[in-house]
Each structure stands twice: as C-alpha cells, then as structure tokens.
Design a protein that fits this description.
By secondary structure, this protein is mainly beta. Helix content is 13%, strand content 37%. The chain has ten helices and 52 strands. The strands form 14 sheets. Strands 41, 42, 43, 44, 45, 46 and 47 form a seven-stranded mixed β-sheet that branches. The relative contact order is 0.13.
Length: 915
C-alpha cells in the first residue's frame, strides 16, 4: 500500500473513531449518517473527477516564438496521476473567443508536455486564452477546465504604446491618449483615425492629429453602458494591420467598482451574528481596496468595513428582521456609491466555522432562530474534502449552541467544506475552510556559483524532501527566463492551483501569495477571508443518490471509431476497412464486426494529418455503403466576464523597461542584418480549385479558399467557414443571405440550390441546411463572385431570367465538394476523408552549448533561457540541471513546479544573477 493510500486509510479509521465519539444515538440513528457518508464517497469514486494544470515557460511571447508547456492531469480525490484519461485537448482562443488552435496531447501517467509555435501566419499581437481539458472533464462543471491567459506582442519599434485616461464630464467622457513607439518616443504630429465602437457597431468616427508630445484629447458622448465600448485608433496612412489598436473604456476605478457580499453560511438571518465577507473588483477585473460603512433603512451606521488584501475583507453584523442594509464607499471623486446587502431571512440556521491560526482543531457553532432551536428535528453535519467524506454527525439544534471541536488531523491539505443538511439531505448552510497540514514538498536548488558571467555554464543541483527531510522521488518542470526581456509570471503554481484555485469559482488574483513560504497569521487571515468571499464549487447534493451516466467517455488513447452502413442505414459486416496515411506513409486494415463498426488504435496523427478510409467487399471492390466516423464535438466554453486589457495599454515601469529592451534588440538586429523596411507589396497568385464549376474559368473569382487553405482550418462547417472568411455576409429580412447589399446564390458543384428550392422554404433556410451539413473535410474549395464590379456576369447570364436587372444586386458562392456529385453527396460511397485534430508532437528545447570563447559570435538574446518539462529526482531526491547563460547581464527568474504524483506538490520561485 502506497503512502497516499495509507493516509486515506488512516483518515477512514479516524472517521470511524469520530462517529463513535460524536454520535451518541442508537445504531438505527447512526445508519443514516453512515449511508450519507457512503453515498458521498461512492459519488466521488464513480465520478472520478480530474484536475488539470499547465505550466508554461512564460506568459508573454513575441510573434514567431514557441510556447512550451507541461501539463499535470491528476485525480481530484487523492491528487495522484490520473487513472482515467490518456488524452487531453488544448484550445487557443483569441480575443474574439475564436478557436485559432486545437490539438491533442498524449498523457503519460498523469503528465504531458509539448510546444506550440506562435506563427505570424496564425496569430496576431494580442491576448489569448489557453484552455485545456480531457474529454472526461466535460461531464462536470466547466470550472474544472483549465484556463490561462497569455500575450503575444510585436516588438517592432515603430509599433505604439498607449497611455489612456478616461474622465467623466457632464456631456459624456473626456479621453486623453498618449502615443509612443516601443522605444518610448512620442508619436508626434501623426494623423490618426479614431472610431468609437459598441461591439462591432461604429458609433462615431473622426480624424485627429497628435501633438508634438504624442497626445490626443477628445470627448465621447454619454452612455449608460461603456463596458462593451471600445476606441479604435490607427494611422490615417495605410499601414499593416498590426498598427490598429483597440482600447477598452475603463472609467474611474471607484465609480465602477463591483462590490460583492458573501455571508458565512450563505444567508443573513435575523438576530444571528453573521460574519460577512466582501470582495471589491475594479472595472479592469482586479481587486481594489475599499472602505466604507453599513447603514440600515433609516441610514443609521451599524458596521464599518475595510478591505485587508486585494479588495477582500470581512465584517460582522447582527441583522434585524424586516431591515434592508446598504453599504456605502467614498469614491476618489469625493462622492459616495451605494450597494445593497443580501436580503435578511426571518428564520434559519447559521453554521459558523472558526479556524484560529496555528490551532490543531476547528470550532463549529450552529445557531438557529427561536422557531427552529429546540425542535425535535435532526440535522446532518458533514465535512468533505476533495470529494471524500472526512466527518459526519447526526445532531439536534438547541439554544445552548454548544461548540463542537473537530481535529484538523482528519482532513487532507486543501479546502474542506462543512455542510449542514436537513433530513431530506437538502443543504441549508455551508462553509468552506482551508486546512494546511504543512505536508507539501520542500524544493531546494543549489547553484554552483553565487553570480554567473555571460555565456557561463550553469549547474543547478535540485534537492526535494518531505517535511521530515526524507528524500522524495518526483517529476518537476523548470522554466528560466530573462527578467530584462519578459515580465516574470507570478499568479500561482501547481501547488496553489490543485489545493486552492481549482476548488474556487472565478479568478483568484495572485494565488501564489497564499503559499509564499511558511504560513503567517496575516496570510492565514487573508486566505480565510478570500475563500469566504470568492464562492466555491458547490457539491452536487441533488445527484447524490441518483448517479447519472456520463455523456462524455474517458479516452485512454486516440482511436478512430467508425461504422459502415448501406442505403437502408443497416450495418455492413465483414468489410475490409483500409486506412491510408500519406504523411507519414502507412496503411492499416481491419474487418467490420456484426454492427458494421471498426476501430483503429495506436495512431498518432501529426500536425495537419489526413487519412483516406475505404471500405471494400470480399471481391476487393469499393463497398456501396456510407462510412461514418465518431468524433467528439469541439466544446464551446462560456466567455470570461473580465475585460481583456491590451498588451500595449497603460503599462507600468517594469513592463515598459522590458518592451524597451526587446525593441532595442530588434532594432540592433535589423541594423546588423542590413534590414531595411520596404513598402509593402501585395502579390497574389490565382488559386485554382480542382474540379470547380467556375463559369469564369480556373482561378477567376473575387475571393477563393482552396484546398490548401481548408486544410489549415480546424474542423468547421461550411457555414462557419463562409461566415468567418467571406466579408460582408449578412442576413436581410430573415429569409435571405447577402454579401453587403447583393443577394447571395449558393451553388454546389454547379447547382444553384437557393433557386431550385422546394416551395415554402426561404433561400436562407435552404442555404442553412447545406451550411450545417458540409464540413471543411468535404470540400475542395469555396469561390465568391461579386457584382457589378466583380466576376458575377457569367453567373447572372446562367442563372437569372433578367440578367441586366440582376447584374447589379447578385453575388454567387460556388462550392466544390470532394464527391463532385452535387448537393448532399458528401463523398464517394465506400470512402471517407478524415482529418482528425492534430497531435502535439513534443520537441526538445534548444539550449546552446559554449565550449570555448569565440572572438566573433552570433548574439545570444534568448528570452526563455532554459526549459525542461521532465526533471525526475532519484531515490535520494536529487537531480542535476545544466545549461548556459545568454549574453544579457541582469537577473533570471527560476520557476519550478512538480509533484511526487501521489498527492504532494512542490513549488520554487527564485533568482539567478548574471554580470
């Protein structure tokens, strides 16, 4: 039995002891508690929840860089390596929530690693969100999907940085902007186009000129909702798209502060003293420290509150029946702003958990209003952590409110949830608390020198022990970055995510703060306040005794599952299925079973992989059947409520220094390489669609997506492709698609489906059928012919009765399918072209080696100095890492995360010094 299993067994034994001590009832009375505890544990075992965390080498990249990552996929109950999934997915979403990258990654005993090339052919400067999940995780709350924001920048010195200020005035909002280049030189006397946007709608446009100091000053009209409003500015002289800038309107932080209140136990109850947590969030999504007073309905001051850390704090209040309470803060403008507290309940039960710093026990107090206290009804008090029951008691509530002492030793490290339930297992009060057993790993790194020289050989000796100084074998990931070229990331670690963040809802600001070194009284108090204020992932009590079958299956590995059916949709057994891959080249064969199904395993699709699948009968001829491939739909996640702050807006001094260094380096490199910026020249070759019915001839279209373009796209429907790539597409009158103001004809393999349509159907309804039916895998190309200045003339003469009248308001969308058989013939019978989600094939991080002093050498200006996703400590808890320093003097940030893959974590943040 492993150490982690032993600990869980010990918790079970202690739990049994807890029952004997606290439950002073008959055996019959004990059974419901035992049944409840058993149901909780059974639910956790059956659900087998997973948690996933990703460490990246940094949080800011330049176009063309590579993002390196390490993933830890763990069981939620014991935090050991996942026993459920062997495959995970990564989505990269841009600021418009569009998925620009989707890939699969193989999980090896709970960990995975890889890299993503941030090519300028796919990415543009801006903020991106990395989402990571297993298929099994999609059965549960979306909160468990890992999410992380990273930034891509363009370090060309001529790009702009913007300092923006917004000031409310009587007529609206005064905006002052300061524009500089990346070397912090003012963009003076520059003509710029300025537009005010609400979502994608233009509210106002103007052309302005910056002053010598790069400043702009203008007013925008008053609006009741500025959250969705942005200012777009770009040079009035045509430039590349990277010089277009979107600025969210962020007003005075105090004026726009969102103040949320969370009473301990969930509700305010008349006559019962309540601990109330609060969280103040500024418009930029970050915590802001506020102070103020609580008033009753007569405006009598009844309490005072003040944030203790990052906008979070607590205060006490004994509410009165029938009263309504208001919080008021004083804003920076000297005015007050009011917020309503939750309504007061006339009757109820209040659960309170007191956790004193450095105490070995918790104190539980249950208070109730007089109409409830003393009643014969029984209640269940249970505590669970990581989904496992750690404590249970059947009790009656009386007016004495005798405190209950519970040893912390029965809980693992992490968030424990205490819940009071009635006899119908309905939760009536719940309180979370963080238990720190001080049992996590100790990671220490010894350097071979206190200070290193440029290009010096660096040796790091890693030592990992437990709290008793015993050596620990584990797996760790290490990122070392140059502080002069990248802002060091400091928002948590594997440790803080698994033990804290993953069990709380919403964004946890500066999660690493709560685990920075030995716990102190101040940090313990801040952590307690934050947990109460944050809101937690609630336990699914409603489904406790009625387990639902999961919708999404756990995937041990990548499998191509399919079925062959005949024209009557009956399975075709005994067929030979050939799977052909061109890159890398291989052929596999299998026979369909009685259900007509087949499966190919042990396949690892590379990037942009595609497979030709063919079904053959016993005479080795193509079978006259249809092939269906089972695929998981790509999940669509809820958008974040936080405002995305552009990487060029309102930067602090440390960020400005980093950007200045990067821009200076790029300028020097351009001079060194003799690079001179030339005027942009657009050269476009005609794209020819194979087997196209284009009436103008090969390549003669106003817009074309060819086969090569389609292969680069994720698996999208025809409708998604058209709506994403065809400019001006819109719906008119609900029944017609248009390109700008021109009626759209949808033509598939030479057949105009929007004209030859059944009676009673609108052109849009017919088009939508095909838009939803075909996918990028089914198509060879898409062509657009516009009128009157475009290439629609031949189409008008072919499809319209009155060509001269129609020429001015018709456009044509020519779609060429692989089958070439016209509408609704996707592929040739017995064949299928399958393009799966690409696998990430891990590459090795390049780390240069300097064996001698070179008189002339290529500059080494690495941003990520070193990356290693798999540092494995031996039986003595040791490992050694070696690499070479780069050319820049200064400091490096070392970030190391890891686990013994048995429920314990280690995290290290330190510095290296280069002279």
């Amino acid at each position: 039995m492993g150490g982690n299993a032993i600990k869980l067994f010990a918790i079970r034994v202690l739990l049994l002891t807890t029952f004997l001590v606290f439950i002073c009832h008959t055996l019959f009375a004990q059974l419901p508690v035992k049944n409840l505890v058993a149901a909780i544990d059974s639910s956790t075992t059956n659900s087998a929840l997973e948690k996933l965390y990703i460490q990246t080498d940094r949080a800011t990249y330049a176009l063309g860089d590579t993002l390196w990552f390490k993933a830890y996929v763990l069981n939620a109950d014991d935090l050991a390596g996942s026993r459920k999934s062997g495959l995970m997915y990564i989505q990269i979403l841009d600021e418009n929530k569009k998925v620009v990258r989707l890939e699969m990654v193989t999980i090896h005993t709970g960990s995975a690693w890889g890299n993503i090339a941030l090519s300028d052919k796919v990415y543009r400067p801006g903020n991106y969100t990395l989402k990571a999940y297993t298929n099994w995780m999609l059965n549960y709350d979306e909160h468990y999907v890992f999410s992380k924001v990273f930034t891509i920048t363009d370090n060309s010195p001529e790009n702009w940085l913007i300092n923006a200020g917004f000031h409310p005035i009587i007529s609206g909002i005064n905006v002052d902007l300061g524009l500089t280049d990346l070397l912090q030189k003012p963009v003076g006397l520059k003509d710029v186009d300025v537009a005010l946007l609400q979502d994608k709608r233009v509210l106002k446009k103007d052309k302005l000129t910056t002053g010598l100091d790069g400043k702009l000053d203008f007013d925008i009209p008053k609006s009741t909702n500025t959250r969705d409003m942005k200012i777009k500015i770009n040079s009035a002289v045509a430039q590349k798209a990277t010089t277009s800038y979107l600025i969210p309107i962020i007003l005075n932080p105090d004026e726009s502060t969102d103040l949320q209140f969370m009473p301990e136990g969930g509700i305010l109850i008349a006559g019962l003293d309540s601990k109330i947590a609060f969280k103040a969030i500024a418009e930029d999504g970050k915590g802001t420290n506020v102070s103020g007073y609580i008033y009753d309905s007569q405006h009598n001051q009844v309490a005072k509150f003040e944030a203790a850390h990052l906008g979070v704090g607590i205060f006490h209040l004994t509410p009165k029946d029938g009263e309504a309470y208001t919080a008021e803060i004083i804003t920076g403008e000297g005015t007050s702003k009011s917020y309503q507290l939750p309504k007061v309940s006339k009757t109820g039960v209040l659960l309170n958990v007191t956790d004193h710093f450095d105490s070995d026990s918790l104190t539980i107090t249950i208070n109730a209003t007089k109409d409830i206290a003393g009643l014969p009804a029984s209640y269940y008090l249970v505590a669970e952590s990581r989904g496992l029951s750690c404590y249970g008691q059947l009790l009656k509530i009386n007016e004495q409110n005798t405190p209950i002492k519970i040893s912390k030793a029965i809980f693992p490290t992490g968030i424990a949830r205490f819940t009071l339930l009635d006899q119908k297992y309905t939760p009536i009060s719940q309180v979370p608390v963080f238990i720190d057993q001080n049992d996590q790993l100790r990671v220490n790194v010894l350097t071979s020198k206190p200070i290193y020289s440029k290009r010096d050989s660096v040796t790091l000796d890693v030592q990992v022990t437990d709290t008793k100084n015993n050596p620990v074998q584990g797996i760790f990931s290490l990122a070392i970055t140059d502080d002069g070229r990248v802002q060091a990331e400091n928002n948590g670690s594997l440790l803080s995510y698994m033990l804290l963040t993953s069990d709380l809802k919403g964004h946890i600001e500066d999660a690493g703060y709560y685990f920075a070194g030995k716990m102190s009284s101040k940090r313990h108090e801040d952590l307690e306040n934050m947990i109460l204020a944050q809101g937690w992932v609630a336990y699914p009590w409603n489904n406790l005794f009625s387990q639902k079958q999961p919708t999404h299956k756990a995937e041990k590995s990548f499998i191509i599952n399919g079925q062959v059916t005949n024209v009557f949709n009956k399975p075709m057994a005994g067929l030979t299925i050939d799977l052909l891959s061109r890159k890398p080249f291989f052929v596999k064969s299998i026979i369909t079973n009685k259900q007509g199904t087949f499966s190919f395993i042990d396949i690892f699709p590379p990037d942009t992989a595609s497979y030709f699948i063919e079904a053959k009968n016993k005479r080795d001829l193509p079978a006259n059947g249809g092939i269906k491939i089972a695929e998981n739909p790509v999940p669509v996640f809820s958008p974040s409520a936080e405002i995305s702050i552009p990487p060029y807006l309102n930067l602090d001094s440390s960020h400005l220094k980093v950007i200045h260094n990067l821009a200076t380096y790029k300028l020097e490199q351009d001079k060194l390489n003799g690079f001179k910026q030339l005027k942009e020249v657009n050269i476009s070759a005609r794209k020819v669609i194979k087997n196209s019915h284009n009436l103008n001839g090969p390549g003669e279209a106003d817009f074309t997506l060819d086969e090569a373009d389609l292969e680069k796209q994720p698996k999208l429907t025809l409708g998604q492709l058209v709506k994403e790539h065809v400019k001006g597409l819109n719906v008119w009158g609900g029944g017609l698609y248009r390109i700008w103001s021109e009626r759209l004809h949808l033509i598939i393999d030479g057949t105009d489906v929007t004209v030859n349509r059944p009676e009673g159907f609108t052109p849009k309804q017919i088009a939508d059928q095909y838009f939803d039916y075909y996918t990028s895998e089914d198509l060879l190309g898409i062509e657009v012919m516009r009128g009157p200045t475009g290439k629609s003339m031949n189409y008008v003469h072919e499809y319209e009765k009155d060509p001269m009248l129609a020429f001015y308001n018709e456009s044509f969308l020519e779609v060429t399918t692989r089958a070439g058989k016209g509408p609704f013939y996707i592929v040739t019978p017995g064949t299928y072209l399958y393009k799966p989600i690409p696998f990430d094939v891990p590459k090795t991080f390049y780390s240069p080696k300097y064996t001698f002093k070179e008189s002339v050498h290529t500059p080494d200006e690495r941003t990520t100095i070193f990356w290693e996703p798999n540092i494995i400590t031996d039986s003595k808890g040791k490992a050694t890492v070696r690499f070479y320093a780069a050319d820049a003097a200064g400091t490096y940030t070392l970030i190391m995360d890891g686990s013994d893959m048995g429920g314990h974590f280690g995290a290290l943040r330190s510095k290296l010094y280069i002279k």
